Amino acid sequence: ETLDVSVPDYVGGTPSAAREAAALDGIQCEVVGDGEYVTSQFPVAGSVMLKDSGRIILYCGDNIEKTSAVV
After folding, report:
1. Which of 27, 31, 47, 54 could link 22 by a cystine bridge, Cβ 3.0 to 4.6 Å?
2. 49: part of which helix (H) or strand (E)?
3. What's the confidence (pLDDT) of residue 66?
4. pLDDT tens profile 19-50
5. Is 25 in a helix, a strand, or coil?
6. Dihedral pair phi/psi, residue 36, rounded to 5°
7. Any residues with CB less than 8 A from the CB of 41 and at least 6 apart, and which?
8. Does residue 10 carry a pLDDT above 60?
């Protein structure tokens, strides 16, 4: 059974805290950049994605989302 999940807001937290929270939420994530805090994410908070196959990208530091992705 595949479930939809609303994407939480991980912006403003540390990458390690965001990874832990995403794991608890059952969401796969990838961290891009080496900044101290998550500065943006894709998809944005409130988006709906498939819990089993979806993945979020957390951008840290000066790395800014520059490409589109299919979720």
Report:
1. 27
2. strand 48-50
3. 52
4. 999 998 889 999 999 999 999 999 999 999 98
5. helix
6. -75, -25
7. 7, 9, 10, 11, 56, 57, 58, 59
8. yes
